[in-house]
Design brief:
The chain has 3 domains: 85 residues, no CATH class; 226 residues, 2-Layer Sandwich (Endonuclease, Chain A); 165 residues, Endonuclease Chain A (Endonuclease, Chain A), CATH 3.30.870. The protein contains 20 helices and 18 strands. Strands 5, 10, 11, 12, 13, 15, 16, 17 and 18 form a 9-stranded mixed β-sheet that branches. α3 packs antiparallel against α4, α4 packs antiparallel against α5 and α15 packs across α20.
């Protein structure tokens, strides 16, 4: 009874009820209107016109097909749902925010005075990787760096002690931006350190995604943090009314300390990420720490989102790194956002797959991929590349897991090896290819990460980090179950059909 009461009084439940009530009122109104034959014909024509508009509106094919099906099945209501939740065009304010993003990064790029020399060195190391770096640079306004070192953490449990230790060393500022912060042991320890740092005069800023934290934090938590003395913001606050912007979430995980140290990866600030709270078996995640000049791009990523949330611009020169670390390959942080028409993260992943000569190994918690991604994985495998995917055995979202399973047959038939992490849930997102390149970050292999979320990551070219990532992956293959062709075709036809139906609508949910 207590659990039920907690659910029905939660902010998420109440917001969902209010939104559903609004949708019901709209449907009721239009159901009366379309009873009139004249208006019914008008709306059918509008639905037809909308269908054509959806096709030619630069949507990804999977996204367009999902909405076309809805408008065909529900001619009037499908159009209404698309207007409320499906439009991806920018408003005037959105265009202003996008130009602000671009301006912030263009202003910051001047700090990397050796950008051209570094690009030359990377081209001499590997021309394919140089082209990928140049694409990321143009699409995400970030640079490849040297004078940067890194440490890889194969588990959130191993990341956390170092994270606390680096927070303790802060002297000037701490910038924290996470999709999920949840009250518990992990956040309690972090908050204790942040309070001490605040008392020492350190500028502490906390930015979290309101929807991501809807079950872990009170609705007014940003205000509570402000009252403690912190600078705090909730990104895109959840409001109990119909709002297409609710699709856009800040899925990034970033911590920057004094401009010299940065963390990113899959780990959020909640107890399950360090296995203090066991929900779906053993939680396998990862993170990476970088220190040196490349931290600058993470600083700009945070400040641009901070400015986006409060409408202010700051003097970026106050936050530049002061530490030059040793050279360890090439390091390129990047951010991706839904405000432009560039699916930068997906394209960077596709580049790695298409350039692979020996192997490409991937971990992702969700496998909801586009036709372009399917084709690239299959072609690479059929060309003799060792293509491996590691996905969860125990899902955190059963619906998404069923959609993921729908891709198995085509991939396995093409020779792609799929492993399910048998100890529990794998949340890490990383690519590794040919002992030359790895991307570690927040980007899932699903539609929301590629097209609707603010994301971030870091590409490593020829770095010693690659050895640690490879060891982690090799250990994953040992403890994971490989799925074979017989496993897939043994599933009954009704279940397979059900998964395909879910797959049709996955891109729009």
């Amino acid at each position: 009874m207590k659990k039920l009461l907690k659910i029905i009084t939660s902010r998420l439940f109440l917001s969902a009820i209010l939104v559903l009530a609004q949708i019901s009122i709209i449907i009721l109104f239009f159901s009366r209107v379309i009873n009139n034959t004249f208006w019914s014909q008008i709306f059918i024509i509008i639905s037809f016109v909308f269908g054509i508009w959806i096709i030619f509106n630069k949507h990804e094919p999977e996204y367009a097909i999902g909405w076309l099906l809805i408008t065909m099945i529900f001619p009037v209501y499908g159009v209404l749902l698309y207007i409320m939740f499906g439009k991806k065009t920018l408003t005037y304010i959105g265009r202003k925010r996008l130009s602000k993003f671009v301006r912030s990064f263009n202003n910051a790029r001047s700090f990397n005075k050796n950008r051209e020399k570094i690009n030359e060195k990377l081209a001499n190391y590997d021309s394919d990787l140089s082209r990928q770096s140049q694409y990321i640079s143009k699409a995400a306004f970030s640079s490849a760096w040297q004078n940067t070192e890194a440490k890889y953490y194969p588990l959130g449990d191993l990341f956390f002690p170092d994270f606390i230790s680096e927070l303790e060393k802060a002297e000037k500022f701490i910038f924290i931006e996470f999709f999920i912060i949840s009250l518990g042991e992990m956040w309690s320890q972090v908050l204790d350190v942040l309070k001490r740092k605040l008392d020492q005069g350190v500028d502490v800023r906390i930015l979290y995604d309101d929807f991501g934290c809807i079950g872990g934090l009170p609705g007014n938590y940003a205000k509570q943090l402000t009252q403690m003395g912190f600078k705090a913001r909730a990104f895109n606050p959840v409001k109990p009314h119909i709002n297409s912007r609710m699709n856009y979430r800040d899925h990034r995980k970033i911590c920057v300390i004094d401009g010299n140290v940065a963390f990113t990866g899959g780990v959020n600030l909640a107890d399950e990420y360090i296995n203090r709270d066991i929900r779906f078996g053993h939680w396998k995640d990862n993170a990476v720490k970088i220190w040196g000049l490349a931290v600058w791009d993470f600083t700009i990523l945070f400040l641009s989102m901070w400015d986006l949330s409060n409408g202010m611009e700051e003097d970026l020169t106050l936050y530049q790194p002061t530490l030059e670390a040793k050279n360890d390959g090439f390091v390129q942080p990047f951010g991706d956002n839904p405000l432009d028409e560039v699916a930068m993260s997906e394209t960077a992943y596709l580049q790695i797959i298409n350039m692979a000569k020996d192997y490409v190994w991937i971990t992702t918690p969700y496998l909801v991929i586009t036709r372009s991604m399917i084709n690239s994985l299959c072609i690479a495998s059929q060309s003799g590349v060792d293509v491996r995917l590691v996905v969860p055995k125990i899902p955190d979202k059963k619906y998404v897991h069923e959609v993921s399973l729908s891709f198995y047959l085509e991939l396995i038939k093409a020779g792609v090896k799929i492993f399910e992490y048998s100890p529990g849930f794998i949340h890490s997102k990383m690519f590794l290819s040919d002992d030359k390149v790895s991307i570690i970050g927040t980007v899932n292999m699903d539609y929301r990460s590629f097209y609707l979320h603010f994301e971030c990551g870091v590409a490593f070219f020829g770095s010693s980090v690659l050895d640690d990532v490879k060891k982690d992956m090799e250990n994953l293959f040992i403890v994971s179950d490989e799925i074979n062709y017989n496993d897939v075709i043994s599933v009954n036809i009704i279940r397979r059909f059900y998964r395909l139906i879910l797959r049709l609508f996955a891109p729009i949910l």
